[in-house]
Amino acid sequence: MTTQPGAHEDLRAALFDSGGVLMQPIGGRWNPRADFEQTVLAYAPSITPEQFTSAIAAGDRFLASSSSEPDRDVYHQAILCYLGVAPATQLLADLRRDVPPATILETYPDVVGTLQELSRRNVRMAVVSDNWPDLPELHAGLGIRQYFEAYAISAELGCQKPDPRMYYHASDALGLAPAQCMFIDDDPGLVAAAIALGYAGRAVCRDAVTSEVPFVTSLTELLELF
Q1: Which of 48, 60, 166, 199 is a good FRET partner for 151, with 20 to 30 A between their CA atoms?
Q2: What's the pTM value of the predicted model, to 2 decimals?
Q3: Is the dihedral of CA 14, 19, 21, 23 positive or negative?
Q4: d(CA 49, CA 153)
Q5: Pair 176, 12: CB distance under 8 Å
Q6: Can you tell me the distance from the alpha carbon of 167 to that of 187, in angstroms, rounded to the nearest whole number?
Q7: Cβ-based burial of 114 (10 A; exposed 0-12, middle 13-18, buried ≥19)
Q8: Are 2 and 213 in contact, with CB atoms under 8 Å apart?
């Protein structure tokens, strides 16, 4: 389980990353979302699967080179440019149109029960995520929005983890000191950064991959710490 067992009497809050911790994309791909190809093909039916694969890889590089989460339209424009497709206003609108979150995303099996029990124990909760501003709406569509008092979202703050502002925004919003908060992420490096700032931390390693920082293999193991 964890390399540091035992409850922490001073812990009052859990700060969760979202993707890879709370939810995952149906089909396995985060960006662009699963209906991207179908939407683009309605405008440019000659695009091949191989072209989409190359363009999506270019989009991944674009995201990796960005210091903060870019606007969704800008991200889509980067991929469309690679494909040689004009980023028409209607196409961009179609790519970001609202769809039921449950058609493209799902929570992990250990999420809802853990959040319910933490809430029952009066553990306060927030989200710290490199994501776009619509994340609370996505969580609402998945039935978990009500558990979180605050969100620290990179696209709104103009920075990404491990920038300290991401972590501090969440704990400050709860009115708590870092030492009173447990940060949970599937990236051990981001957990290490939180620990260096004074937060408690756990990496989520659902595939039982060990980590140099304290880790859990299921969110239910967090209940032993509160």
Answers
A1: 60
A2: 0.79
A3: positive
A4: 32
A5: yes
A6: 14
A7: buried
A8: no
